Amino acid sequence: MALKCVSVTEARSNFSDLLDEAVDGVGTMIIRNSREAAALIPAHLARFMPLVEAVLCDLGASVELSHDPEVMEAYRRGLADLEREDIAWYEV
User: Fold this and answer.
1) CB contact at 8 A, 71 and 61
2) Cβ(29)–Cβ(4) below 8 Å
3) Cα(27)–Cα(15) distance, rounded to whole angstroms?
4) Contact at 8 Å (CB) between 78 and 45?
5) H or E element in which residue 7 lies
6) What does the pLDDT look like over 33-54, one tens digit per residue?
7) 3-state SS string over 29-82?
8) Which fold has domain 3-42?
């Protein structure tokens, strides 16, 4: 899912519209002082973030810091599976 980017000022002014877009599956990255500050994403994706972070932690990687094409591709495939509501298994 690609996130559109908006400033904090724009997010404040258009929060209701951005929330409606998130419900419809469109995420928004909120930028403050030229840096990513927060993301507004669909709730069904947010529920899976702890799982994604745990898997990446076990792999010694993070999405934010990883530039490894294989890690990023695996992450994209995982998100696509979750969006299709395919079951994702993770064994501890």
Assistant:
1) yes
2) yes
3) 12
4) no
5) strand 3-7
6) 988 888 888 888 877 777 777 7
7) EEEECCEEEEEECCHHHHCCHHHHHHHHHHHCCCCCCCCCHHHHHHHHHHHHHH
8) YefM-like fold (3.40.1620)
Q: What number of residues does the chain have?
A: 92
**Per the structure block, which two tokens stand in for 92?**
């501890």
Give the integer Cα–Cα distance in Å for 38 and 41. 10
Read off the pTM.
0.56
β-bridge partners, 27: 3
CA atoms lying within 13 Å on the CB side of residue 25? 6
45 with 79: CB under 8 angstroms?
yes
The total of other beta-carbon atoms located within 10 Å of residue 51's CB is: 13
Give the pLDDT of residue 63.
55
Q: Which residues of the chain have pLDDT under 50?
A: 92
The residue extents of the domains of the chain are: 3-42, 48-83
